[in-house]
Design brief:
- The termini are far apart.
- About 5% of the residues lie in helices and about 40% in strands.
- Strand 21 and strand 22 form a beta hairpin.
- The protein is built from 1 helix and 32 strands.
- The strands form 8 sheets. Strands 23, 26, 27, 28, 29, 31 and 32 form a 7-stranded antiparallel sheet that branches. A 5-stranded antiparallel sheet has the order 1-2-3-4-30, with no helix packed on it. A 4-stranded antiparallel sheet has the order 6-7-10-11, with no helix packed on it.
- The protein is mostly beta strands.
- The chain folds into 2 domains: about 260 residues, 5 Propeller (Tachylectin-2, Chain A), CATH 2.115.10; about 130 residues, Jelly Rolls (Sandwich).
């Protein structure tokens, strides 16, 4: 009997000791880290305009590969952490395949944008970087395969092929354009006419290339270009100390600045941008990550560093994010004790496209909706007709605001927001019955509750992030 009591005590102690580890092992795993924006975007062009971050990008996540895309939306942030968009900035391009819109270029008292639409480059113009943009020449309409307003013009009966425009304006105000397959040319003062004297930039790697990036730092011109694709995406570079059209020099050392990092499980760091914080020597590299398969990409940002001679150091890829780049007062979010949902979509094994070493599983636990990571999400089961997610604060508290970042927000959502003190009796406190294309969906509140519940009535059944204040 004495032996039994001792053994029982030992087992109790052992269970007490290992329970936290067992509980930790049951926590859902987020292999996607801290993405820049709570949505699937690629080909991002980021810039700072009047103290606000602007992000123009390809909208991903429409489940049909390169045959489709989401609409043109402009994500904005005051601190580089909290992002939002509302509606579209280019109405006539909605419903088209809209890729890689470039940065907004200020010239001639206007703003110009250079998206690839249905596989061809166009110039668009607006009075504001917020839009609305319209085609810079001809009728503001699109039709397949291309219209007369394409940036490049047909030659010898051949279509004006070319994608991924990148615009650079030098100190003398001369504009240049760079695009797919290492092509480059001057851009005339009207910002819509490409000089016919185009060139191909000489680089160490000669395979197919897209997603060009061009910038100038301390008298050195940098041309970045992609090689490979899918999980094998990479970025390499050359430089010139003479002009934006070269001649270009090959780096003496390593010329590949981003490549798949198997140790950190970051795949295919491809088409993105480089941006500089105004008034500083801080440069950042934004890139898409190809670890979700097909056009289900998200964008991440890391610091871009240079050596004393101006060579770019290989980027230390992480999915940790860079945090706030500008100060902005934001109240602390409420601590969530428990999350519940009407259902949870079964885990998804990611299918590799070009690298058999990719082994990822995406889980859809409701805890992901309040982790602040942007890379993980809660998804309901496809057959779930109730479709709700609930946050438990642990005790009754004053709630002043709710911000919901739905999955595929560019397709629009409708929802009902409800609160309860006991989890039994519910009262409506927010939401809207009409479908709105925005993110987040914000409700200003003045309630006391322990539970907050969002019921999705229209739109994709999932939430990237839910901020409760």
């Amino acid at each position: 009997m004495k032996f039994y009591i001792s053994l029982h005590g030992f087992l109790v102690s052992l269970i007490t000791m290992i329970s936290p580890l067992a509980l930790q092992a049951q926590q859902p795993v987020n292999p996607f880290g801290h993405a820049l924006i709570p949505d699937m975007i690629a080909d991002a062009s980021i810039q700072v305009i009047d103290g606000v971050f602007y992000c123009y990008a390809t909208t991903d996540g429409y489940d049909n590969g390169l045959k489709t895309s989401g609409p043109p939306v402009l994500w904005k942030s005051k601190d580089f952490v909290h992002w939002s968009f509302s509606g579209t900035y280019f109405p006539s391009a909605v419903g088209q395949k809209y890729w890689a819109p470039s940065k907004a270029v200020a010239a001639n008292g206007k703003y110009y944008l250079y998206p690839t639409v249905n596989g061809f480059m166009y110039a668009a113009v607006a009075a504001s970087p917020d839009g609305p943009f319209r085609l810079a020449s001809g009728p503001d309409t699109f039709y397949a395969p291309f219209t007369a307003a394409t940036l490049l013009k047909s030659k010898n009966g051949k279509p004006p092929y070319g994608i991924d425009a990148e615009i650079f304006i030098d100190d003398d105000q001369q504009a240049y354009i760079y695009w797919q397959r290492r092509k480059a040319a001057k851009l005339h003062a009207d910002m819509t006419t490409v000089d016919t004297n185009e060139m191909t930039i000489s680089t160490p790697h000669t395979s197919y290339s897209e997603g060009p990036i061009f910038f100038k730092r301390k008298g050195i011109y940098y041309y970045l270009y992609t090689i490979g694709g899918a999980e094998k995406y990479q970025y390499a570079y050359v430089t010139s100390k003479v002009s934006p059209l070269g001649p270009f020099e090959f780096p003496k050392g390593n010329n590949v600045i981003s490549t798949t990092d198997y140790d950190r499980q970051i795949y295919g760091p491809g088409h993105g941008c480089v941006f500089n914080m105004p008034g500083t020597n801080d440069y950042y590299f934004a890139y898409l990550e190809f670890g979700r398969g097909s056009t289900n990409r998200q964008t991440y940002v890391n610091k871009l560093e240079f050596d004393e001679e101006g060579a770019i150091r290989a980027v230390k890829l992480t999915m940790d994010g860079v945090g706030a780049l500008l100060p902005e007062k934001t109240p602390a979010r409420k601590k969530i004790i428990h999350m519940n949902a009407s259902s949870i979509r079964p885990a998804l094994n990611i299918k590799p496209e070009g690298d058999s070493l990719l082994h990822r599983t995406e889980e859809f636990d409701p805890l992901f909706a309040v982790d602040g990571a942007n890379g993980s999400r809660w998804m309901a089961s496809p057959a779930d007709s109730a479709c709700w997610i609930m946050a438990d604060l642990g005790k009754t508290a004053k709630i002043t605001r709710s911000e919901l970042y739905f999955v595929r927000p560019t397709a629009g959502h409708a929802y009902v927001l409800e609160y309860s003190k006991d989890g039994q009796t519910w009262m409506a406190c927010g939401g809207h019955a009409d479908i709105k294309m925005q993110s987040p969906h914000t409700d200003e509140l003045n309630i006391h509750a322990r539970y907050l519940r969002a019921r999705i009535t229209q739109g994709v059944k999932g939430v990237w992030e839910w901020n409760i204040y």
